[in-house]
Design brief:
- By secondary structure, the chain is α+β, with helices and mostly antiparallel strands.
- It has one domain: Cytochrome P450 (Cytochrome p450, Orthogonal Bundle), CATH 1.10.630.
- It is built from 18 helices and 12 strands.
- The strands form 4 sheets. The chain has a 5-stranded mixed β-sheet with strand order 1-2-10-7-3.
- Helix 6 crosses helix 13, helix 10 runs antiparallel to helix 14 and helix 11 runs antiparallel to helix 12.
- It starts with about 20 loop residues before the first helix and ends in a 6-residue tail after the last strand.
């Protein structure tokens, strides 16, 4: 039986832990994360689904956890605690707010969204990542820059003469969807279907809801069929590259290629939507930083844009919590004893505002150079699509500032709503106003 004697709350019983995962928390989670970093940096919490997991909030602990081979990405490693174990934990932590909730299998697993590279371990992860990396090269991403710029301009053209827009639905959402469809080789006549399917996922999150499940099933079925058709007529697109990829006689099967295409789309589109949306909102709320960036862009200098996107990823990034990990053996993390099978969630949003690592962490500084943020992860699961996300983020934000220089929020910040969900952090809408402009 697991020993819980070392797992009494790290905070004083007289200090009340903040309430997590409420609507108020979603609007601004950073004060709660600051409390956790100070009082309970590795925190046993009840999640909205009723599942319990460890939340890792300090930068040093987060970086360690992201690269620790004892923390598996495979959901099969999860173990439900026995009733005796759960009663022991509740007794040991009875005075703490984090003793509530039940232990169970994370709800996200039943949706079958987190597949392949996101939830496998070496040696399978090593093989598949090596093969996928051969198709998803920096050269391929760099060659895609003109297409991303064309998309950004075309989308702004569609609303520039109105003087108002919802930047989430009219800009931040369609740009990465059309971009990744182009990269994958989805024919133009099918891309609106992808936009509809992805929209359903964005509106309802990654939970096992009927509409989401149907959208995922349609998307994966389409990609499987497309992969089969492309095998007979390989092109220069990413799916063809995935099929073509091989190493020492190893090849991706059609099924693996379709699954990799799906996970590149799934992992890439919502993160980029949130990068563009959160980044634009942060600039609108920090006019001094926005003015610096606009002045640099007007002078033809893109250096601040590059460092600025990295800072926006740190300051209010698109991924709030890293995807699930599960302890494969008893271990200690941040002074807490983690049992075999326990779920562990690294809170990237908390780690990236840790004052032990970042100077003035709650201040947006687009010129911040010492910025090893964890927005793309760390270790063997470091984001494969980071070059594409950087390209899209810089193109989207730079184009907005150049073409709509007097853009402003059309509502009060308190009226904005954030999408519910455990992993991602993003706005539902971002209404803006500006001087109407011709194409």
């Amino acid at each position: 039986m697991h020993d819980y004697s070392a797992e009494v709350p790290q905070s004083s019983p007289s200090v009340q832990a903040p309430e997590l995962f409420t609507w108020a928390f979603a609007a601004d989670p950073y004060p709660a994360y600051a409390w956790l970093r100070e009082h309970s940096p590795v925190h046993w919490a009840a999640l909205p689904s009723g599942v319990n997991a460890w939340l890792v909030t300090r930068y040093a602990d987060a970086r360690q956890a992201l690269a620790d081979p004892r923390l598996s990405k495979n959901p099969a490693r999860h173990r439900e605690r026995t009733d005796d174990e759960e009663r022991a934990r509740r007794s040991a932590t009875s005075k703490s707010a984090h003793a509530k909730g039940k232990v169970g299998i994370p709800g996200e697993r039943s949706a079958e969204l987190m597949t392949h590279l996101l939830n496998i371990d070496p040696p399978d992860h090593t093989r598949l990542r090596r093969l996928v990396s051969k198709a998803f090269t920096p050269r391929r991403v760099a060659e895609f820059a003109p297409r991303v710029q064309e998309l950004a301009d075309r989308l702004i053209d569609s609303f520039a003469n109105r003087g108002e827009a919802d930047l989430i639905h009219e800009y931040a959402f369609p740009l990465p969807i059309y971009a990744i469809c182009d990269m994958l080789g989805v024919p133009a006549e099918d891309q609106d279907d992808f936009r509809d399917w992805a929209g359903m996922m964005l509106r309802h999150g990654g939970g096992p809801r009927g509409g989401v499940a149907r959208s995922v099933k349609k998307m994966r079925g389409y990609l499987a069929d497309l992969s089969h058709r492309k095998r007979a007529d390989l092109g220069d697109d990413l799916i063809s590259g995935l099929i073509r990829a091989g190493d020492h006689g190893e090849h991706l099967t059609e099924g693996e290629a379709a699954a990799m295409a799906f996970i590149l789309l799934f992992a890439g589109f919502e993160t980029t939507v949130n990068l563009i949306g959160n980044g634009t909102y942060a600039l609108l709320r920090n006019p001094d930083q926005r003015a610096r960036l606009q002045q640099a862009l007007d002078a033809g200098d893109t250096t601040l844009l590059a460092t600025g996107v990295e800072e926006l990823l740190r300051y209010d990034g698109p991924v709030e919590l890293a995807t699930w990990r599960f302890a494969t053996e008893p271990m200690t993390l941040g002074g807490r004893r983690i049992a075999t099978g326990d779920p562990v969630l690294v809170v990237l949003a908390a780690a990236d505002r840790d004052p032990e690592r970042f100077r003035d962490p709650d201040t947006l500084d687009l010129s911040r150079n010492d910025n090893p943020h964890l927005g793309y992860g760390h270790g063997i699961h470091y984001c494969l699509g980071a070059p594409l996300a950087r390209l899209e983020g810089q193109a989207a934000l730079g184009t907005l500032l150049r073409r709509l220089p007097d853009m402003r929020l059309a509502v009060e910040p308190a009226d904005l709503r954030w999408r519910g969900g455990l992993i991602m952090r993003g706005l539902r809408t971002l209404p803006v106003e500006f001087t109407p402009r011709q194409k």
